[in-house]
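Entry 12.
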Amino acid sequence: MITKNIELREQSNQSVSNTESSFTQNAQLAERLGESIQQLSEKLAHMMNYKEQAIETIQNVSAISQETAASAEQVSASAAQQQKEIEHVASSTERMNNIAGELQKVINQFKVN
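Predicted 3D structure (tokens):
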């Protein structure tokens, strides 16, 4: 009976030791899990910062693109206006040439041979 009690006590001690070891392992795992969560939280904060920077950069590029488009429209309008003015100058030059030709004919009528 004493042997049986000793065996039971040893089994009980072993069970307590195993339970203590399990709790120690669980505590270590919980600590590592907490560290991992902290690292993830820090990385998430960095990602949020980079996201904000990316959004700001995209907005800046969008604003520049809109300004460029507006400038392109202005250049196009100016080019169209210049084209009209060049056509007007060409037309005026052609009329002046016609008038000069007619004037030359009139002058030739008054020339003495």
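Annotation: The two ends are 163 Å apart (CA to CA). The mean pLDDT is 91.
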